[in-house]
Amino acid sequence: MGRHPQPEIRRTLLAACTDHVLAHGLPSGLAPLARAAGTTPRMLVYHFGTRDRLLLEVLQEARERQLRFFRQALAPRSEPYAQTLARAWGVLTGPQGAPFLRLFGALYHAPEGEVPWPDFRRAATTDWLGVLEEGLRPHYGERAPALATAVLAVVRGLLMDADATGDTARADAAFAAFVGLLGES
Q1: Distance CA 183, CA 136 (A)
Q2: pLDDT tens, 114-142?
Q3: How far is CA 67 from the centre of its chain?
Q4: How confident is the model at residue 107 (pLDDT cuts 50, 70, 90)?
Q5: Which residue in 41, 49, 60, 92 is deepest, having the highest Cβ count within 10 Å?
Q6: What SUPFAM superfamilies does its record include (predicted)?
């Protein structure tokens, strides 16, 4: 008689593997994930079926964590949304946000066939539009959807710039200048 599924063990393994991937990036094999989870590659395959399935679930779990964290930073408050955006930039690019930016930045720019998550780029773009629109709508009305796209493009562009050059001070100053323009409209 075979073993019965144990969802609590699976959840614990997924959490440990996700923590490892956020700290170290996607591994080329299962051994680093198994070590991080205190198990064997064979047990990971038992619980997740395949390496690709495990990696997909790890990425989805990491993405859920990122969405919760970033949405909290971007959520509208009782202040002008330009101030919320300025504060959120520091949170998103700070120590808590950095693991997400590293992991998903690498995924976003990886060749399509190397990403174990079909349609990741589209999801990574559209995930943020709703919360940005919600914050911008009270002040910008019907322009909020277009402005949300512009804000997202500026954020993504400055993140790529900082990643490519290492000049985070310049990216921070550019975002502050951009937010200043939003506050003036």
Answers
A1: 11
A2: 767 777 888 888 888 999 999 999 989 99
A3: 6
A4: confident
A5: 92
A6: Homeodomain-like (SSF46689)
DSSP string, 72-119: HHHS--SS-HHHHHHHHHHHHHSTTTHHHHHHHHHHHHS-GGG-SSTT
- The answer to whether 177 touches 169, Cβ cutoff 8 Å, is no
Q: Report the candidate in 153, 18, 127 with the shortest Cα–Cα distance to residue 68.
A: 127
SS3 2: coil
Give the burial class of 69: count Cβ atoms within 10 A of its Cβ; 0-12 exposed, 13-18 middle, 19 or more buried: middle
What domains does the chain contain, in order, with CATH numbers? 7-184 (1.10.357.10)
DSSP secondary structure of 168-184: HHHHHHHHHHHHHHHHH
| Residues listed for the chain | 185
Q: What is the pLDDT of residue 105?
A: 84
